[in-house]
Design a protein that fits this description.
- The complex is a heterodimer of chains A (597) and B (181).
- By secondary structure, chain A is α+β, with helices and mostly antiparallel strands.
- Chain A contains 25 helices and 18 strands.
- Chain A folds into 3 domains: 197 residues, Aldehyde ferredoxin oxidoreductase, N-terminal domain (Aldehyde Ferredoxin Oxidoreductase,  A, domain 1); 189 residues, Aldehyde Ferredoxin Oxidoreductase Protein, subunit A, domain 2 (Orthogonal Bundle), CATH 1.10.569.10; 156 residues, Aldehyde Ferredoxin Oxidoreductase Protein, subunit A, domain 3.
- In chain A, strands 1, 2, 3, 4, 5, 6 and 7 form a 7-stranded mixed β-sheet that branches.
- Chain A is globular and about 60 Å long.
- Chain B is of the alpha+beta class and 181 residues long.
- The termini of chain B are far apart.
- The relative contact order of chain B is 0.24.
- The chains are: A alpha+beta (597), B alpha+beta (181).
- Chains A and B meet through helix 4, helix 7, strand 14 and strand 15 of A and helix 1 and strand 2 of B.
Chain lengths: 597, 181
């Protein structure tokens, strides 16, 4: 391979404690690029259909892409696995920081972990070699502490991915953290890593990534960097991003009624300014930090200087802020920041955890769950100490916590009494930070997203293509504002790898990767008409306040939009990709499986 | 155009993105390899606080003085004011006398493949790292009025500790550091 890729994949089997290196098939890389696309294909090829995602057989893949570590905002790593959370889809959470680039400098495009260790271990990779080491001293430690200890033991420039106590304690929505506060969160990545007894993966690399066409690449690099640094100073998006992070949009999104407020009951919240990015900046902010090669630096570090929650904090991401903050009506900013810090440190998926907490609060308000059921916790809206108590219960599977540790779908099925109506999930994965009664494209993406109810799938046909490309090349999806026209991705890929894709290949490739994931889900038991659905709240609970008062998404309209989506993506009325479309995309191997349905 | 100058580092605002490392290795090596960069960003706890380490251009050049007589690999480039390494002569990391003599501690490192000393040469007065520093942490000041040895006297770790005491409160309130003895 001429550039971009290192051409090697590390395969680690924890059961037999064997470590092999295998070459990355150049043809496979050409067809599926990397990250999310490549991961879906590897899952299809290597994981037996119907494998239990909680079993040791499930694969946990840490995959980079050809642009990881190479371009501005190319910091990402994509984790791909069969999701223990949804059980019928794949999971492909993405995280930033410096881990992915470091892995490539160490000589690998990805790490595939299979099997299960009988005692806690961590994997140490250094310049073309790898070994499993004892992790007993790390077991039970929070994500920040683990990061710190590993850096101390292994050296300043080592990068780590690790799980926290939530992953160790089999919480289905546990995360994998790279660096403190950067997580590959959705779909149960941490649960899977914990079930394999793999505490961390530490990487150190001093090698280099080659560039196939240096001159062409340098020109594109300058162009993109120039746009981003100018955007940082002049464009609203870039400026706000580098000053307040993705949280900047909380107020503006509340103003158009698209924030998760009160467990997705509302989209607008009058109290949003109490917990806004502005308030954070004045009270807490210390500095901005960025992922590898990012000129924008959206992560805002801060500190709470006094009071019961004093300590380091980070101005959190938009979706997790909405779920933990507005979703639970938390108006105490210090409390909100502390909750984030706590959830991050324990290794919870903040989005799912916030969603479930909001759901439990609503059950409590409606009398479906009583104080007795909650072992004496007075779980009223916005009650931060009660939330901390509840989370402790969830972490230890104690009482009601054992039910809530499964996720909002399972919890609502157990609790019953009409709570299914406001259990906000699709295919078992909790919604992100947007209410969608007034924004129907958001609702549709929750319903049809290939990893369940997630904000990451893309609102429009175009956005879905950009996002899947970003996740395969592994450039931050927020770079898309500067990557116009989208064929710029192709130019960049060609310059780095020496390939000759054309602008017209852009949509075909994106479509192939999206349909690959959809086909995989269908093979594993996802049935589009049954599973691409929305909870009743979106169809029946109209907003009662704010500019979009009265808005909802009638079911008939949704069914019509969904049918349009299927048609646009080359699927039949049942949401199954047509044979003709599969052949066009070069996915002929999928056809026999689809015929058996 | 070769010119004298100084890369000013505003340690308060480094975002730790390491784009400077990418740009440096790209211009010096033609590949992307942060380890072969002449500027390196280190992360310190608490924080993390990111500190870029780069040659501070001491006027008395302790590194040149320390280079053993049998090697004489380091010399001063009078045009740019930077210290240059003759990689044919450098004895590599087994010698390390220049690194030990450097008051800034992390400003000189060894190339991961060739094992020769690497020192910032200011790109002939147009440093690439400065061009890609979006937060404005790195700034190139032309001219040579400033003696970098005052900067160099503070190694990155000391800077990080000093910043930490400014950014974060002292005892008691630092929750995540409290297990430390």
């Amino acid at each position: 391979m001429k550039g971009g890729y290192t051409g090697q994949i590390l395969h680690v089997d924890l059961t037999s404690r064997t470590i092999n290196t295998e070459p990355l098939d150049p043809e496979l890389a050409h067809q599926f690029v990397g990250g999310r696309g490549l991961g879906a294909k590897i899952l299809w090829d290597r994981l037996e259909p119907g494998t239990d995602p909680s079993s040791p057989d499930n694969l946990l893949m840490f995959l980079t892409g050809p642009l990881t570590g190479v371009v501005p905002m190319g910091a990402q790593t994509c984790l791909v696995f069969k999701s223990p959370k949804t059980k019928i889809t794949l999971g492909h959470p993405v995280t930033g920081a410096h881990w992915g680039p470091e892995l490539k400098f160490a000589g690998y495009d990805g790490v595939i972990v299979s099997g299960k260790s009988d005692k806690p271990v961590y994997l140490y990779i250094e310049d073309g070699s790898a070994e499993l080491r004892d992790a007993t001293h790390l077991w039970g430690k929070g994500t920040t502490e683990t990061w710190r200890i590993l850096k101390q033991e292994l050296g300043q420039r080592v990068q780590t991915m690790c799980i926290g106590p939530a992953g160790e304690n089999s919480i289905l929505y546990a995360t994998v953290h790279s660096e403190p506060f950067r997580a590959a969160a959705r779909g149960g990545s941490g649960y899977l890593m914990g079930s394999k007894k793999l505490k961390a993966v530490a990487v150190r690399g001093t090698g280099s990534i080659k560039i196939a066409r240096e001159k062409e690449f340098k020109d594109l690099f300058s162009l993109i960097y120039g746009r981003m640094s100018e955007g940082r100073r002049k464009a609203r998006h870039g400026y706000a991003f580098s000053r307040w992070g993705s949280y900047y949009s909380a107020l503006s999104f509340s103003d158009v009624s698209t924030c998760d407020v009160k467990n997705y009951r509302e989209g607008y919240w009058g109290d949003m300014d109490k917990v806004s990015g502005l308030e954070f900046e004045w009270r807490n902010k210390v500095k901005s930090r960025g992922c590898n090669g990012c000129p924008l630096a959206c992560m805002q570090h801060g500190v709470i200087r006094e009071g019961p929650y004093a300590g380091y904090v980070v101005n959190p991401d938009f979706d997790s802020t909405m779920c933990i903050g507005a979703g639970c009506l938390v108006t105490d900013l210090d409390g909100l920041l502390y909750l984030h810090q706590l959830a991050d440190d324990l290794g919870f998926d903040n989005i799912s955890l916030g969603n479930i907490t909001g759901f439990t609060m609503e059950c409590f308000e409606k009398g479906i769950l009583t104080k007795n059921d909650l072992d004496g916790i007075e779980l009223t809206w916005g009650n931060v100490p009660a939330m901390i108590e509840l989370w402790k219960k969830i972490l230890n599977h104690d009482g009601i916590g054992a039910v809530l540790a499964q996720g909002v779908k399972e919890a609502s099925e157990k609790i019953g009494q009409g709570s299914e109506k406001f259990a906000m999930h699709a295919k078992g994965l909790e919604y992100g930070g947007y209410s969608c009664q007034a924004h129907h494209d958001r609702a549709l993406q929750y319903a049809v997203g290939d990893r369940g109810g997630c904000h990451h799938y893309g609102l429009t046909w175009e956005e879905q293509n950009v996002r899947v490309w970003s996740d395969c090349l592994l450039m931050c999806t927020w770079a898309r504002a500067y990557m116009t026209p989208p064929s710029l991705y192709i130019d960049l890929l060609n310059a780095v790898t020496g390939w000759n894709l054309t602008a017209s290949d852009y949509n075909t490739w994106a479509e192939r990767m999206l349909i690959m994931a959809r086909s995989y889900n269908i093979r594993e038991g996802m049935r589009p008409l049954r599973d691409d659905v929305l909870p009743d709240r979106v169809h029946s609970d109209a907003f009662t306040q704010g500019p979009k008062k009265g808005a909802l998404y009638p079911k008939e309209e949704f069914l019509k939009d969904r049918a349009d989506f299927y048609r646009q993506r080359g699927c039949d009325d049942n949401g199954i990709p047509t044979e003709q479309h599969l052949t066009e995309l070069g996915l002929d191997f999928v056809i026999p499986v689809m015929r058996k349905l | 155009m070769a010119q004298k100058g100084f890369i000013e580092v505003n340690y308060n605002i480094c975002s730790g993105c390491r784009l400077c490392e990418i740009a440096c290795s790209l211009v010096k090596e033609g590949v992307i390899n942060p380890e072969a960069s002449r500027i390196k960003v280190y992360q310190f706890w608490p924080g993390p606080i990111d500190i870029p380490a780069i040659c501070r251009l001491c006027s008395d050049h302790p590194c040149i003085a320390a280079c053993p007589p049998k090697a004489r690999a380091l010399s001063l480039n009078e045009e740019t004011g930077a210290v240059e390494v003759d990689i044919e002569k450098c004895l590599g990391s087994k010698c390390s006398l220049c690194v030990k003599a450097c008051p800034h501690e992390l400003a000189i490192s060894f190339h991961p493949q060739t094992d020769k000393a690497m020192i910032c040469d200011l790109c002939q007065g147009e440093p690439e790292c400065v061009k890609v520093c979006a937060p404005g942490c790195l700034n190139f000041l032309p001219g040579s009025a400033f003696d970098g040895k005052h900067y160099a006297a503070f190694p990155p770790k000391a800077i990080a500790e000093s910043l930490a005491s400014q950014f974060y409160p002292a005892k008691g309130a630092v929750k995540y550091g409290k297990e430390e003895k």
